């Protein structure tokens, strides 16, 4: 396992950011040319696990062209969209991945990528030979995986886990790359090809639950994704959960935030806010206080204090209790 390399345009003078980011993208993903604004705000972390490559990118709006890479090994690139949207265009066809979606690209073929503002994406690059001849002979370029399939959900959680445990990756066995590649192959085989219409037909509630991290999630987005009218989406929520889509989404996001804040990790309050779908950390804090009666920082401090107290009790041999914040 290689060390995680971290890059940020924040450390670069504004006039040089555009060139800096273009060179970094081209170095990380051969054949890519990034068209970005001069003062772009973006960060990139990258590392390798055996023969697979992983990256985490946070970026403002960008237009990227990738020529087919023909003078080196072929790779399949899995994009795990966490926030914002990413559209891949090739051979005159376009497919858009939104928060929660997984989309695949074949780096031996040319394509164009359009990235939305406030974009957050985890990227997994796997050599074709690790996925098997049958997989490599298939047409996966620009395909959107069905996120309702449990195999895709497991793969996504695996990649998210690798990112969250990035500071411990030097302890991960190099042969773990084969497990990741196998999980990717199984996910693709079972999920099939979702195409650009993979979400049409999904129930409004299911779509909302699978895309809570999308800051643009709302009645209009759910309507577009499921093929239902906005009025039908509203009625579905009122019929099944008794509240509007906005109220349902906000409540689920806050419950998820409370769970994340109860953990002992390095995520900041802003990180948690963005991860659960809020695009404004101040607004998130106000909503959290209104829902739980205390600020996110106070909630986290109380959770950490409880864990510390429990640890002391356990060491003294009295009791062992798992802390869980009240929702």
Description:
The chain is 42% helix and 22% strand. It has 327 residues and is α+β, with helices and mostly antiparallel strands. It is globular, with a radius of gyration of 21 Å. The two termini are 39 Å apart.
Question: Can you tag this structure with a few keywords?
Answer:
327 residues; alpha+beta; 12 helices; 12 strands; 22% strand; disordered C terminus
Q: Compute the average pLDDT.
A: 83
What is the tally of helical segments? 12
* Net shape: globular
Helix and strand pattern: EHEEEEEEEEEEHHEHHHHHHHHH
Q: Which stretches are low in confidence, meaning pLDDT under 50 for 5 or more residues running? A: 193-201, 307-327
Report strand order across the widest sheet. 1-3-4-11-6-9-12
Q: N-to-C terminal Cα separation, in Å?
A: 39 Å
Biggest pleated-sheet summary: 7 strands, antiparallel
The tally of beta strands, per DSSP, is: 12
- What is the strand content? 15-25%
What class do helices, strands and sheet pairing give? alpha+beta
Rounded to an integer in angstroms, the radius of gyration calculated over CA atoms is 21 Å
Into which percent range does the helicity of residues fall? 40-55%
């Amino acid at each position: 396992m290689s060390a995680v390399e971290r890059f940020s345009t924040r450390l670069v003078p504004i006039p040089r950011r555009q060139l800096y980011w273009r060179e970094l993208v081209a170095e990380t993903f051969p054949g890519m040319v990034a068209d970005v604004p001069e003062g772009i705000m973006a960060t990139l972390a990258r590392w390798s696990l055996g023969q697979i490559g992983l990256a985490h990118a946070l970026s403002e709006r960008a237009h990227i062209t990738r020529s087919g890479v023909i003078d080196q090994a072929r790779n399949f690139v899995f994009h795990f969209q966490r926030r914002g949207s990413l559209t891949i265009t090739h051979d005159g066809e376009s497919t858009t991945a939104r928060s929660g979606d997984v989309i695949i690209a074949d780096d031996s073929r040319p394509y164009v990528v359009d990235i939305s503002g406030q974009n957050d994406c985890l990227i997994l690059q796997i050599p074709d030979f690790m996925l098997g001849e049958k997989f490599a002979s298939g047409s996966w370029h620009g395909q959107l995986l069905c996120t309702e399939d449990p195999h895709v959900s497991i793969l996504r959680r695996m990649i998210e886990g690798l990112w969250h445990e990035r500071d411990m990756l030097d302890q991960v066995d190099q042969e773990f790359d084969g497990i990741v590649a196998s999980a990717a192959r199984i996910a693709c085989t079972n999920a099939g090809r979702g195409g650009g219409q993979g979400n049409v037909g999904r129930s409004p509630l299911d779509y909302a639950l699978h895309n809570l991290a999308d800051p643009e999630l709302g009645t209009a987005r759910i309507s577009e994704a499921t093929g239902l009218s906005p009025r039908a989406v509203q009625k579905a929520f009122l019929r099944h959960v008794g509240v509007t889509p906005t109220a349902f989404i906000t409540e689920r996001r806050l419950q998820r935030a409370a769970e994340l804040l109860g953990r002992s990790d390095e995520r900041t309050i802003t990180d948690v806010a963005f991860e659960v779908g809020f695009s404004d950390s101040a607004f998130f804090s106000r909503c959290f206080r209104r829902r739980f009666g205390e600020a996110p920082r106070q909630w986290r401090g109380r959770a950490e204090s409880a864990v510390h107290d429990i640890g002391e009790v356990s060491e003294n041999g009295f009791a062992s209790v798992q802390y869980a914040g009240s929702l």
